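Reply to dn_fold:

You asked what the input looked like. This is it:
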Amino acid sequence: MADDIVITGLGVISPIGSGESAFWESLTQGRSGAAEVDCLDTSNLSRHVACQVKAPIDVGKQMGRASALAVAASRQAMASAGLDTPFGEDARVAIIVGTTMGETEFIEERLDVPAEDWLSEEHMKRIAAGSPGSIAGGVQEDLGARGPAIDLYGACAAGNLAIASARRRLLDGDCDIALAGGADGFSRLAFIGFMRLRVMAAEVCRPFDEERDGLLVGEGAAMFTLERESTARARGSAIRARVVGASLTCEDYHPTRPHPDGDGLSRATAAALRDAGLAAADIDYVCAHGTGTPQNDAIEAKVMHACFPGGVSFSSIKALTGHTMGAAAAMEAACCVLSLERQTLVPTWNLRTLLQPCSLDAVIDRPRPAQVRLVLNNSAGFGGYNSSVIFAAA
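and this is what came back:
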């Protein structure tokens, strides 16, 4: 590749801290975002714990929760990259935000309203504000950017999809700067939906543990500034990581369950390696999807055994962040970039007894100093979405 695609900035708003320093500190100290839900009456529900962003998110304008989270993370990513906003008229900037739920407030706020009052004039405006593209559009307006603004709906693989899409646009010369990542706000729809699917943990998420009992619903946003290396060097920007390979696959096995053999995720992993021109043995670490659900973790372990016959180190951060939906893969990408910079692997917290059979190198108990050159970020989602992105040290 003549001109690598590089990451020059990142921003994170998460249940375990806002800003990359707070985020990394929590990842390495095992500080969980799990707590009693405070924006939904769960007294008549079987589950009461989620991972919410507790810090106030005030972006100075009225917008949906997911948009506000994305705007806050995007401002961090711009500042991290040393880019001034608003952009000039000649700037070619693509904004791509992966999401699972999009903006849900305009639905949820009307669930208990009589049918005859549902489509009021005010509510029609709210529906329009929650239309596809509204999250990326909100970021675009806030940054004063011109160019494509896309909400990319890819279930829980959406954050990786956004990064892969941004990389492709930069390689094709369609833009000079891309702001990409994922965002989802806490929603009643997601909380009750996952609860009724019987995949939510009672109190603690334990990815890859023999006694795992499910995921915790989360929220947040992670955004990245991506550029061609020549552009970044021309303006003197520090390069934080390289995006060297990416792949998307789909499978049609089941609306909510992965293929028993992990067909889609296996193909995504292999295709990302081919795209990067790498062998499995080149990968130092896999940031796993690792939801903590019985099926996902067992199938993902099977995938890693098949794709990395020589073994590989792996962990999941969802034990702390919860499953942040469309932001999940992007938040995990932030973990990948920070791991490359700090030459440290974060563990799967709460993991006591590793699921069997598993002969892979599970990072547990504490952060591990390591030589980290190439990392793979894997994500999977409902509807058969699978995506793998490979990051290299700067």
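The first strand starts at residue 5 and ends at 14.
Hope that clears it up.
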